[in-house]
Design brief:
By secondary structure, the chain is mainly α. It has helices spanning about 10-15, 20-25, 40-45, 50-60, 75-110, 115-150, 165-190, 200-235, and strands at about 155-160, 240-245. Helix 7 runs antiparallel to helix 8 (about 200-235).
């Protein structure tokens, strides 16, 4: 399938999460709040439409595998995919990135003062993301599993523990917005991850890790906000349910 210039950006990012890396590269807004096409965005943001289209289609065709379009998968399958492809790899990236941020700020912070703020943001991100993934894995995903199983059994009496699946989803998306703001600030502080002249290997590794972290987190966020969460809400709306809350 080829993406066309008239396709809506957030729909492209939703169906093909891997394209987020290109949207980030060219500073193209792909949030669902901006319901505009690639062509409209190119006129507003002044990027080469033909180049971006070619990169997007090349990337999609090259990575033609099951991770491209997960919209037809079950809630359980998507949750498992998120855990294996985002939660676990990102967790492994967090500690070395924090170590690098501290080291580079200590050595180069006087000459490059933005490194101090970068270190502070990374120190904020690490526990926030760890807790966020724990909440998804321990609260939201088990609820999604229960929802999917009830739906598959045509059980129209669904019992969840937090009134509605919309409650944890709302909280997760609020947290997505919070760490998304910090990722944008990191991109601004690093000047789109452009290294200064003479950057040492630790400096290079820090920027590479931060860029990888941003890309993976935005793909993770996109998959949840535009595929997993809407699918779960639609499924719940088709079922009647009883809550088990004590509050």
């Amino acid at each position: 399938m080829n993406i066309k210039k008239t396709d809506i950006i957030w729909e492209i990012a939703s169906k093909y999460p891997i394209t987020v890396s290109i949207f980030l590269k060219y500073w193209i807004e792909f949030c669902c709040k901006w319901n505009i096409s690639l062509e409209e965005s190119s006129k507003r943001d002044n990027f080469n439409l033909d180049v971006v289209l070619e990169e997007i289609n090349t990337l999609i065709n090259f990575n033609n595998s099951e991770d491209i379009d997960l919209s037809s998968k079950s809630l359980i399958e998507i949750s498992e995919y998120i855990k294996n492809n985002f939660h676990n790899p990102i967790r492994e990236l967090l500690y070395p990135t924090e170590v690098l941020a501290k080291k580079v700020a200590m050595v180069h912070g006087l000459a490059h003062t933005e490194l101090i703020k970068i270190k502070e943001i990374v120190e904020w991100l690490v526990p926030v993301l760890e807790m966020h993934f724990d909440k998804e894995g321990q609260i939201l995903h088990p609820m999604l599993k229960e929802l999917q199983e009830s739906y598959d059994k045509s059980n129209d009496s669904l019992s969840l523990h937090c009134w509605s699946i919309k409650n944890p989803i709302r909280q997760m998306e609020f947290e997505h917005d919070n760490y998304g703001d910090m990722l944008l600030e990191l991109r601004n502080l690093t000047n789109n991850y452009i290294l200064p002249d003479g950057a040492c290997r630790s400096y290079q590794a820090l920027y590479a890790n931060l860029q990888k972290l941003e890309e993976d987190l935005m793909r993770h966020t996109n998959l949840e906000n535009f595929v997993l969460h809407p699918k779960a809400i639609e499924m719940e709306n088709k079922l009647s349910w009883n809550n088990k809350c004590d509050f």
